[in-house]
Amino acid sequence: MVLAGGAARRMGGADKPTLPVAGQSMLTRVLAAVHDADPRVVVGPVPPDLPVPVHSTREDPPGGGPVAATAAGLALVPEDVTFTALLAADLPFLTGEAIDVLRLTAESAPMQGAVYRDAEGRRQMLCGVWRTARLREAIDKLAQERGGLDGASVRELMEHLRVAEVSWRRPGPPPWFDCDTDDDLRTAEEWAR
User: Fold this and answer.
1) Which part of the chain is the MobA-like NTP transferase domain (predicted)?
2) Which of 34, 51, 79, 159 is the most exposed place for a label (fewest CB within 10 A)?
3) Which fold has domain 2-187?
4) 178 and 90 Cβ atoms separated by less than 8 Å
5) Which residues make beta-bridge pairs with 164?
6) 45, 57, 107, 110: which is closest to 82 by C-alpha?
7) Ranges of each domain in the chain
């Protein structure tokens, strides 16, 4: 599941997922990292020229934030899907290998999911793999506590989930590197050369 509906305020409202890095949109790059996922769900606008088939939806209400978007996306994930990748659409260096590391960790750890932890010790919550049923339960609990999901933060959701933190020690850009600003996009282009 790829969350692609953010406002991109720090980039002047640009349609971030469609911005290219090394000639390919960030959304296409993220979807390539989960090429074997079934279904592939995008929450947010889907460009008509997207080169891969996806299921798409929007959060309710529109602009309701990443947790509302996650709930909307999960509604398109069948009950028998064991693991769900929850990803931001602006991760140009995400790879299948990076997803496999998270999935294998989530399978083997007595946790409800796995996310990357950056060098500063921050959890990269929108670069993770979750046990689908546990993610649904956490969203339901949070919705009950708050009376809805509009404006709920990912951090609030994570209070209801036990997560394994994974380090990435390979050379090159980390898989969780996201492009929140024009400077980030320029850095991604330099790294991609």
Assistant:
1) 2-148
2) 79
3) Spore Coat Polysaccharide Biosynthesis Protein SpsA; Chain A (3.90.550)
4) yes
5) 114
6) 107
7) 2-187
